[in-house]
Amino acid sequence: MRSLPALLLAFLACLSLRPVPVTAQDDDPGFETGCGCGGEAVEDDEETRRKKNVGLAGQGKGDEGDPDAPKVQADLQTRINKAIEAGVKWLEERQDKDGSWGPVKGNRLYGSDEVVDMERDRTGPTSFAIYTLSKCGVKSTDSTIKKGLKWLEHTKLAHDVFGKEEVRGDATAILTTYESASIVLMLEALHERSAKLTGRHSQRRLYSDNPLKPPSKSRFDKDDWMWMHDRILFLTKGRTIGGGGARGKSRTTTIQGSQNPGGGWRYGQASGDQDLSATQFCLLALRAASQAGYPLDKVAPDTFKWAAEYCRTVQAPDGSFSYQRGKPTSAGMDACGIGSLLICKEQMELMGQEVPSWIDDSIKRGLEHLDKVFDATQNKGWHEGGANIYYYLYAVERVGDLTGRKEFAGKDWYVRGAEFLLSQQDADGKWVDNTTWEPRDVLGTCFALLFLKRATPPVVTMRRDDG
After folding, report:
1. Residue 132 near residue 446, CB atoms below 8 Å
2. How far apart are the C-alpha atoms of 112 and 325, rounded to whole Å?
3. Coil, strand, or helix at residue 224?
4. What is the pLDDT of residues 402-425, one digit of tens each?
5. Eight-state DSSP code of residue 153
6. Which residues contact 303 (CB under 8 A, 6 or more apart)?
7. What do you get for the CA distance between the two ends of the chain, in Å?
8. Nearest Cα to Cα of residue 389 among 429, 381, 262
9. What distance in Å separates the CA atoms of residue 186 and residue 446, rounded to the nearest whole number?
10. From CA 272, how far away is CA 84, in angstroms rounded?
11. Can you tell me the distance from the alpha carbon of 18 to that of 38, in angstroms, rounded to the nearest whole number?
């Protein structure tokens, strides 16, 4: 799997274009940040620290002691904003006439070495492109977004957790984990802009006790909420379709969930096969659902505990992570593993569950290893030489913003990554990743934009003094 179907992840698997003021200082807790996290009231000192670190890192000094380090010049944020604007414009113009961004095209079936020329995930690039555009500040009323959503209508189902269902269009098709996760990410970004979580459900700004009903002040309409609900059921416990059979006889169909007994995910229904890339992308989507107020504690309370156990199995003694157990490790998988464990810990705490002490140790060892191998210009390890570089940088962004860290290997990861991406953007405004599946231009551009916009909200800091 040289091209890492994991990469697919990021396809399936960027917030307003307002610039971060270049004169803002990191010691100002209210400075406006590129991910929209600045300026909110904060809960405590630790969360304040995290939010301070979410803006453009550096702000003037660069990496002291490193003559090769890019210096943070006054025009860096301006250049980043121009790159984002050009990338968004290209992505909008890349949309096909039918509203889609094309299918993923591969040369083999999932989980097989058989060489074929085929379309793999039809809806993934479209939902991920809409997610990216929304993170970059494109409004849900924009014609590009509306046209893409209209094309995605064929993926909608509406049913409740007890199996009653209204089927519309091509609703019987089982979407892959990447497609399903991408749809959840897209819907949350369109409706909620990553609503802030707090340490208790009763204190969350948005939270629903009913998986079939959006929170009272949510921007979700019921139809889109049910669309998200359906995809969450597929990613977790599965669902049952009930319908009338011939001559009045009842007929039901059970669609198995995609989380494996081992805790991880692969491409489709649970089969015992799992990988870290698909796993972290599903976790990213489930975290987005939690941010939207979806009650995962009611629907799938053990999901994050099981997923954390799987992540533990693909971590080596030196702290590095591999795509699958027994396979080579890479910097990109280090970032995937660390990010996954951070999400699992956060969500278990939100559910009031006890977090095993080994999780903190695994995160610590993972960060120590990433410190050793971080390089903004190549994904060291399994894909030596820069393969899957945009996917890798997107994973690094996730870890950096989840932890609030500014540096890896003593280097400002955001400044280094941004300088590299600015050097790789072509004259049309796109980024092309020739090491991944088609559409390489769409996927590469989405990864790059999500990095530049720092699209991941910081991890929640739990409060221990609220009863």
Report:
1. yes
2. 17
3. helix
4. 998 999 999 899 999 999 999 999
5. G
6. 236, 259, 286, 296
7. 49
8. 381
9. 13
10. 40
11. 12
